[in-house]
Amino acid sequence: MSEQEKKRSIQIDPGRMRLAEYDRQDWVANAPEGTVIEDITEPSFWSLMAAQMKPYDRVEIRADDGTWLAEVLVLGCDRTWARVHLLNHYKLSTADVSLTQSVRHESFWRGPQHKWCVKRLTDNEIVKSGCATREEASTWLREHEKVM
After folding, report:
1. How far apart are the C-alpha atoms of 53 and 59, rounded to whole Å?
2. Per the domain annotation, does 16 fall within a domain?
3. Nearest-CA neighbor of 115 among 64, 75, 80?
4. CA-CA distance, 63 to 57, in Å (whole number)?
5. Checking phi first, is residue 38 left (phi over 0); if not, alpha (psi -120 to 50) or beta?
6. Is residue 10 a part of any domain in this protein?
7. Domain around 50
8. How far is CA 129 from CA 3, 50, 59, 107, 109, in A?
9. Do residues 43 and 82 lie in contact, with contact meaning Cβ atoms separated by under 8 Å?
10. 73 and 105 in a common domain
């Protein structure tokens, strides 16, 4: 057998290739406060969204407090569960997402839904949420402390 006969050439047929948006969905999920990486690999974690998912979908999950971000691949799913594979997990610095303003109050990032918030440290009560920027939360806190 000649060297040419041993060499194998495989090519992908055009019918086997298309743009990703035709075959999979890309999702972004904002994990509830207190969620840890182990939680997102549990099939029941996805029970309320599983009916909309399909195998090979990708999901980016963000911690509400900004401390981590993960990417998963959906391996299988049904109406009330989804089995996922953890592709990546990134630990983020909490210093990048929170800012202490005073000893009585703290401004911090609480995720895309709540945005920048201000909480009272004595009882951890959120006194302001929905600020678009850190500066907006800081300004609100300065004004609030003038009144107090």
Report:
1. 10
2. no
3. 64
4. 20
5. alpha
6. no
7. 23-91
8. 70, 30, 26, 9, 9
9. yes
10. no
Tens of pLDDT, residue by residue over 122-131, are 788 888 889 9
Strands lying side by side in the sheet with 116-120: 98-100, 105-109, 116-120, 125-131
Tokens 């948006």 correspond to 21
Question: Residue 136: helix, strand or coil by DSSP?
Answer: helix
- Are residue 78 and residue 131 in the same domain, yes or no? no
Interval 35-44: pLDDT, tens: 999 999 999 9
- Please check whether residues 81 and 29 belong to one and the same domain: yes
Residue 2 lies in a domain: no
Measured CA to CA in angstroms, residue 56 lies from 26, 47, 48, 87, 129 at distances of: 9, 17, 18, 12, 36
- Whether this prediction's pTM lies above 0.70 is answered by no
86 within domain boundaries: yes
pLDDT at 77 over 90: yes
How many other CB atoms are there within 10 angstroms of residue 85's CB atom? Answer: 10
